[in-house]
Structure formats: C-alpha cells, structure tokens
Design brief:
Structural class: alpha+beta
Helix content: 10-25%
Strand order of the largest sheet: 1-2-3-7-4
Bound molecules: flavin mononucleotide
C-alpha cells in the first residue's frame, strides 16, 4: 500500500490503523536542536481529540503521544523522530452488523475494489484516526516555523450553509466550533443539534490563514507552494475542495479587480492569497477548505454487500455529526508540514 509518506526534506510517514494497537508517525529531516518534549503535544492533540464538542464521536481516546526516537534531553537530535499514540477505546465488535456492507460516502467500496478487503472496524487506514499522527507531526513542523515567526490559524467560516460574517479571530476561543462570528456559531450549533436528532450530518468550510510567512517559499515548477498545499489539504479525508486567495471568485473578476497593486509598503489587496507563481509573496496565505458532511449517518440508505447483493445500511453510533472543528488542527498540521518542508528546502540553498 503506497502513499504513506509526504514531504521532500521534512518527510512525514504515518502508520497504524483505527482499530489496531495505535497510530503514529516517523518524521525524517527535522534539524537537530529543536526543543521537543511530550508536553508539547498535549494542547494540540486535545483540539483534534473527540469530546471537544457535543457533535463529536463518543469514542474516547486520551491521545497521549509517546516519543520513541529522535529526541534526547528534550531536544531533537537530527535522527528520525518516531511518535506513537495508543488506541484505547476501539470497540471493534460494534461494527459486526455492517461488516459485509459498504457505507455510502465512505472508503469501504473503493478499498474493497482495490485491495479485495476493507477494514470494517472503523475504516483502518482511511479512518480519521490516522489524522492524529499528522497533528503530532505538525506540532514538530510548527516548532520550526514559530522560530521564524510564522503562525498558522484555522477557523470555521461555514457549517450547513450558515456563514460567518465577521472574522474577529480573538473570538475563536469563545466558540465551541472555533468560529470567529459568535452569533453565527450559535446558529451553527442549533443546525447541528437538529441534524443530530435526525441522525444526519453536516459539512462546512474552514479557512486557514498563515501569518508571518516570508517571501520565497515554493519551488518551480511542479513543487509550487500552492500545488503542495493543495496536495496536503486534499489528502485529508472529507475534504472536497480548496481555494487560495480569491479562489473560484477570481474566475468572476476582471484583471484590474483581481490584481494586487504593489506599493513600497507591500500589496494593497490580497486576492493572490499570499502566493504568486507558486512562491510565497510575504502576505498572509489564505486557504479555504470545503469539508463534506460525515458519511456515517443514522438514516437508512441503499447499499450492497461484498457480493453485490442489494441491502440497506444505517450507521448510527460512534460517529461525528460534522468533521468541523476536529478537522481544523489537522488542516493546520498539513499546512505547517508543507511550510516547514519548503522552509528547510530554502535553507539548503546556498544563497539563503
Ligand atoms: C476529523 C475528522 C473526523 C471524521 N469523523 C468521521 C466519522 O466519525 N465518521 C465517518 O464516517 N467519517 C468521518 N470522517 C470522514 C471520513 O474519514 C472520510 O469521509 C472518509 O475517509 C472518505 O474519504 P473522502 O471523504 O475524502 O472521500 C472524518 C474526517 C475527519 C477529517
């Protein structure tokens, strides 16, 4: 099974399954001398961990990160770093009733067609549990970036068609959905309550903003910063679209409206979303991510079994009602991994 590694210099490989012993990551290419200890993981892992809001799966995992290699006396050594997170609350038996059925909207069907089997116990490698390993790797990437003054912040701008109208990022901690518009956050919660009662789910939009990114990150031609960010973000389950800067709206603007005039003080506007010709321009990088509704729902749907016989499936139980806000630290982590990778690629160039 290919495709488990990401990045050129700062290279992340994740391993493990949702209902196996645990999941983890090997991070190769992290420079020596980065301060790192177990406690560094606590806060970020808690943001992805289920239980932060009433709309999260009831699966309870403490997501304690064990550092197995690459760190000595709370400092990275330059050797591969291995982090491991034990699975503690996997209840595989609860999947028995649907073990032969494909969940619509999930990966069961495509994994079965490709590999001849699928991990019906909570989706194995294509489970959102795998994203805990990405968040752990992102914390290490974040340490490299924060030294350079780069900050990555994700927040909810839309759930179930309800859109945030104000973007006051100081309000994020007051919203259980990490939405900067507290009035809209309440409306989003109400919408989630309603679909939860119906056994249904909702999607939404997350915006990720990078502040303090220096100009010059990104490589011609295939490793453009926006191309790598798109690959990283689209590799997260439930992500169905992503745009940078004015994104799809750019298609409706004139050049005179979409160009960002350049002054000695910098750009007047930021339709580019901080990236021009695949290279960061020093302005905020602005990424918007479309997140689909959770596929596992408590409403009966049509499906087939492994032999192609028609059947009905209901997947109520231990599932999220929405992937937001749990997906936010995952998206931030993927953005950090890309930026750290490009930052380290730049520092290997002689002119830097
Ligand atoms: C943070 C997060 C939590 C998720 N929680 C669930 C869940 O509880 N149940 C579920 O069926 N899918 C959940 N998903 C979505 C599936 O992982 C995803 O839809 C599935 O792997 C199919 O991939 P695709 O949506 O990219 O096509 C979650 C995704 C993320 C990122």
């Amino acid at each position: 099974m290919a495709g488990n590694s990401f990045g050129e210099v700062f290279r992340v490989t994740t391993f493990g399954e949702s209902h196996g012993k645990g999941i983890g990551a090997v991070i190769d290419g992290c420079p020596p001398g980065v301060p790192l200890c177990r406690d560094d993981f606590e806060q970020e892992m808690a943001r992805r961990r289920p239980g932060g809001s009433a709309f999260d799966t009831p699966r309870r995992e403490d997501d304690k990160v064990e550092i197995l290699s690459g760190v000595f006396e709370d400092m990275t050594t330059g050797a591969p770093i291995t982090v491991f997170i034990k699975n503690k609350d996997a209840r595989s038996k609860s999947y028995d009733p649907i073990k032969n059925l494909f969940r619509p909207g999930h990966g069961d069907y495509t994994y079965f067609k490709k590999y001849g089997h699928f991990d019906y116990r909570g989706a194995g490698r294509y489970s959102a549990r795998e994203t805990a390993a990405r968040v752990a790797a992102g914390i290490i990437a974040g340490k490299i970036l924060s030294k350079e003054g780069v900050d990555v912040i994700g927040y909810t701008t839309e759930i179930g068609g309800i859109r945030a109208e104000s973007l006051d990022l100081t309000k994020l901690k007051d919203s259980p959905l990490c939405c900067p518009d507290l009035k809209k956050s309440v409306e989003m919660e109400q919408a989630l309550e309603k679909v939860k009662e119906q056994g249904d789910s909702l999607g939404g939009v997350v915006e990720v903003r990078v502040k303090g990114c220096p100009p010059g990150l990104g490589e011609p031609v295939f490793d453009k910063l926006d191309a790598d960010l798109a690959r990283a973000v689209m590799s997260v389950g439930a992500v169905k679209g992503m745009e940078i800067g004015s994104g799809f709206e750019a298609a409706r603007l004139k050049g005179s409206q979409n160009n960002d005039p350049i002054t000695p003080e910098g750009f007047n506007t930021n339709h580019a979303g901080g990236i021009l010709a695949g290279i960061s321009n020093g302005d905020d990088i602005i990424i918007r991510v479309a997140v689909k509704p959770i596929p596992s729902i408590g409403i009966e749907q049509e499906t087939t079994d492994r032999d192609g016989n028609p059947s009905k499936i209901t997947t109520s139980g231990r599932f999220d009602v929405t992937a937001i806000p749990r997906i936010i630290p995952v998206l931030e982590a993927m953005v950090k991994i890309v930026l750290a990778d490009h930052y380290l690629r730049n520092s290997m160039m002689s002119q830097f």
